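Fold Annotation — chain and its backbone

Fields — amino acid sequence, structure tokens

___
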Amino acid sequence: MNIKNPAVLPISLGRSTAYLIRGKNGHILVDSGPPGSGKKLLKKLSQEGISPEQISLVVLTHAHLDHSGALEDILKAGGAKLAVHKDEAPALEQEEELHLNPVRPLGRLVKAFIGKKRKKGSSEIKPDLVINKELDLKPFGIKGKVVATPGHTPGSVTVFLQTGEAIVGDLLMGGMLFRRRRPFYPLFASDVKQLERSIRLVLKLKPKLILPAHGGPFTPAQVETKLLQPRRIKRKKARRG
């Protein structure tokens, strides 16, 4: 993944990509990866000279398992605070994955293989910071903000940095196999109209580079050209029922 800003480190964790944002007085981690990826994440951070104690905040773009599965490992390792949108926090307490409404045929196929979210008896994860519309990251030493961008799930958020990067989680995604540089709608959406509004909001804030958790990165021009075709997404929604 080609990101020119050395302060933004993509960390590939198999099913998804987490991002580390380097700060002068501490670092911010965006997402944690799927279950079982905690050790891999910590090892990759160590290779960059970063200890868990140097992570001051973990921002969760949304609570789907491939983004939140290793949260417990990361939070226990260094004591970072956790920031989650108010509409997403309840999903962390559920055993089952929520908001898996397929947008396209591949989503229906993938949904059939998705099981329970976490085992009974696992430790509950409680957010330290509950995001409403926005969260300023300056208190954590980072020039940027977290903005609500619902649609994939009700509480999905995007991290915007003043350096021009937008870390969008699953607001959009790369294609499968060899088409990872082409933007697609996510496999699932809680509200497809909200999803499109959130994509437009991201573009309105004029990022230089859009960083999804699956595939990419993308330029705003690529997203504008490939995704903002309302009739396409409406047809997909109609087939879903």
